[in-house]
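Continuing from the previous page of notes. For each protein in this section, the sequence appears first, followed by its structure tokens. Read the first protein now.
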Amino acid sequence: MKGPVDLVFYVLAAVTVGSAILVATLPNIIYAAVALLFAFFGVAGLYILVSADFLAATQVLVYVGGILVLIMFAVFLSSRISSVELSNPVHFRLPAAAICLALFGVLAYTAVSPAFIPKPQVTYQPTTAEIGELLMTRYLLPFEVASVLLLAALIGAALLSRPDRPDIPRPDMEEP
């Protein structure tokens, strides 16, 4: 008899894989973004099941809170994107769904094979304290270098995308 943790795993795995298949096959970008939301939450739930609470919180904050909201704002605020239907014909969707289902089958078989069946876990142990301590002690310099590099990339992207650059012609400023 499977325990409740196994049932939760199978439900989360089904939600994640089903949502990912919908993202790949839905022709409407709004519906695909909503399916992506469920896929992200499913992955966060799977992280919680393997005692990776920091990764789960990061998944929710960064991907659900940042990336998905950014995609939705880009879709809703851009008149060109919201009025266009994606060209995702059936002859592309069916192979994509078949590949996703085949990969799901391989992963499901691997998950239940004897070599990968985990031994009973003792208790849930949070990882955030250990990760926080490592980020502020042993890995402080690489963490700060990465943050400065990301800040420089952000500043460079902001400078490159400025509309008032004289070397980039703007279509609305051209004379007839």
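Done with the first. The second protein uses the same format. Note its length before scrolling.
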Amino acid sequence: MNFDLSDDQLALRAGARELLDGLASTMQVRAVVEAGGGFDAQLWKAMVEQGWAGIELPEAAGGLGLGAVEVAVLLEEVGRHAAPAPFQSTVLALGVLSSSGRADEVERLLSGEATGCVAWSARPDAVRAEGDGADWQLSGRPDPTPYAPSAGVAVVAAETPDGSGLFAVDLDEIGPPAREPAMDQTRELGWLHLDRAPAARIGDAEAVDALLDRGAAYASAEMLGGAGQAMDMAVEYAKERVQFDRPIGSFQAIKHRCADMLVDVEGMRSSAYWAAWCIGAGDADASLAASTAKVWCSDASRRVMASALQVHGGIGFTWEHDLHLFLKRAQLDQLTFGDASFHRARLAALLRPRVEAGESVI
């Protein structure tokens, strides 16, 4: 079996890297951060014009007709550049809205007229609305949501009387939240304060689980890109930095750090793309793959960032060095759609029936 990317996927990656090299260099990312952070409208416009937002949607629905692996290819490059644009959140929102027949909202997101955000954890309560208005109302405050301050549509996981479900909330109607201070200044972050907010139900508990799978896999792909960039920066620095008349990369302790980073990054690559493939293929193990990827990538990302910081030494701790852009961004990705502890517990729950039945878990 061939586990490499196809020629088309490699071409997609090359095109994405070219676009992001031109519009999301570290200098341009820093300009966004220093201007208040979070969202580069010019970069997002270019992504929309390239069809990135609709990459998963069928051509009949205005998309490119590609799949989850191609989304992971793009997200790896987004993470590698710490790109300040709502690609992941809009793609996730579009996938749910398209499958539920929300044509007007899909068109707004595809055209770039609006962006999407996804609130998955700390779920608000959903109750049936009274009167002839919206079908449902949401009350509560989800965890801080990336790109909520500039989003036009929010997909919200909420608790209902019969379990859980997904809901669409028009933020243009209720007003978007204010931008909150955050460690990661390459992305906007905001609290969705929902007080009987009108909402439309667009999915049941099964849709919530499917969104979790996609969110965990896509966050893993973005962490892969960031970790790969941090590793490359550390290796280059180890070649150039001289101590005791020798490049520090010649010292065994630094060699071991770099080797450990490579092992972690390649493990991230295997798990993230396995999860993306399972989701795209509709494989029965998609949930297992997604949670496995999130566990490994969250832990490995933390190790890689720590090692990259140690290799850089004092300069790596300064604002002037670019490493902090990736380190801080990884902090949020490690928590998004469940941290490693959450997904270890989820894996245990998914595998327990197999163990009890005497079946293999591999």
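What the second structure shows: The two ends are 18 Å apart (CA to CA). The chain has two domains: 7-203, 209-356. We return to this in next week's lecture.
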